[in-house]
Specification:
The protein is α+β, with helices and mostly antiparallel strands. It has 3 helices and 5 strands, in the order H-H-E-E-E-E-E-H. The protein has helices at 5-15, 21-41, 87-93, and strands at 45-47, 52-59, 62-65, 72-75, 78-85. It has a 3-stranded antiparallel β-sheet with strand order 1-2-5. A two-stranded antiparallel ribbon has the order 3-4. Helix 1 (5-15) crosses helix 2 (21-41).
């Protein structure tokens, strides 16, 4: 089961019933956009002791092989997003 933004907003609404749903939705949008913009700039996003660290990585351009035809294909340089979980999440997932 995937967690979608509407589920996060419902959970926030349960925790903070005094806030309007549209305000919680706006708050969630702001946080997600800030994370996205920081990663675009190449910054690290650290949510310590609760979630982990997001960071962007640049993959160098390379020449790879198309497995279907066997011909060589040049793959351009691209950015990827990596995530390293916090120690707390690691402990919870592994029942330590």
């Amino acid at each position: 089961m995937a967690v979608v933004k509407s589920d996060i907003i419902k959970q926030l609404k349960k925790s903070y019933p005094n806030f309007l749903t549209k305000d919680l939705s706006k708050f969630t949008d702001i946080i997600l956009n800030e994370i996205k913009n920081a990663l675009k700039r190449g910054d690290r996003v650290e949510l310590r002791n609760s979630f982990g660290v997001f960071f962007s990585n640049t993959q160098k351009k390379s020449i790879r092989r198309n497995p279907k035809t066997g011909e060589k294909v040049e793959v351009p340089e691209k950015k990827t997003i990596n995530w390293k979980m916090s120690k707390e999440i690691f402990s919870e997932l592994n029942d330590e």
